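cache lookup: miss for this entity combination. No prior model stored, computing from scratch. Input as submitted by user K.M.:
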Amino acid sequence: MRTVITGGAGFVGSHLCERLIADGHEVICVDNLITGSERNLAGLEREPRFTFLRHDVSEPLFLEGPVDNVLHFASPASPADYLAYPIPTLKVGSLGTHNALGLAKAKEARFLLASTSEVYGDPEVHPQREDYWGHVNPVGPRGCYDEAKRFAEAITMAYHRYHGVRTRIVRIFNTYGPRMRLNDGRVLPAFMGQVLRNEPLTVYGQGQQTRSFCYVDDLVEGIVRLLMTDYAEPVNLGNPSEITVLELAREILELVPESKSTIVFRDLPQDDPKRRRPDISRARQVLGWEPKIDRADGLRRTLAYFRQAVGVGTPDAARS
Ligand code: NAD
Ligand code: UDP
């Protein structure tokens, strides 16, 4: 199997590269490093079946030789990142997806799109099932990401229906784990960085909004299963264990009892979804998949990574 992963130097993409190499694939990672880093690929440096290609997939992509799978993961994903790069986000979701689909079509490869729970916007249906069409503000700050991904889904289905490309769409719900960027603005790295530096945890709004956090290894397992099925409709992948942001802050504080951090409240960003939890019935049925790593375990593993990233063993060391 020869597999192209766009966005492979990012958080999820780098775990996927490692998993597919372990499964025996030849992997070509295509990334322009806008939010990713070659450091995420350090473990693959000496791997002869791995190639890194620095390229912006919003520009056409031509590769020599056969390709069996194209996994399109390139896109800023953190709200802070896509607010900083709204136009590259719209381009990679639209032009980038078109180019990645064109590559899959030319090579008669399978194609898998990394879509998102953001296609449901600020949902009026809870939990979110794949047949819910969503509640998205196209002209709000999150519109650049949400609408790019909705377009990406639409063009993926068009290539499937019109060109017969074997496509898959995964709607990823909040996923976390090692290699998230400490300063990417997402809630988990934000809180972990803060607790390790004895800074206050910045809870937006009253912290009553909910999310459901999936550990990255569980997500990667679901993606690999989906790739190998013959199922073109979107599939939610995420952990249905739902928690408020305030509860998450408290759980993270409890993980580091020696921390001097407190909780402070900040303005809630515009259009911040109020509730989010995946209905994973389809993934259970089609893939026989469900998450295995609970939040307590996943948070411990992730904290161990962030302790290294902050460069400290304990919060006291962080201050010295
Ligand atoms: P990330 O920012 O760590 O990774 C994205 C990668 O894409 C980065 O390496 C970046 O440099 C690369 N990239 C962006 N634009 C590019 C372009 N034009 N050309 C080439 N490379 C480009 O984010 P992540 O969390 O790993 O997300 C990966 C994918 O999964 C994204 O498509 C995202 O929308 C999707 N997703 C992630 C989550 C999550 O919770 N992590 C949730 C929903 C969807
Ligand atoms: N959030 C927060 N404090 C932070 C960062 C985020 O309270 O320092 C909240 C944010 O308002 C949202 C939730 O945490 O309600 C998840 O935000 P994130 O940026 O991780 O991703 P989202 O799920 O909104 O895409």
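stored under new cache key. The chain has two domains: 2-175+215-237, 177-212+241-276+293-309.
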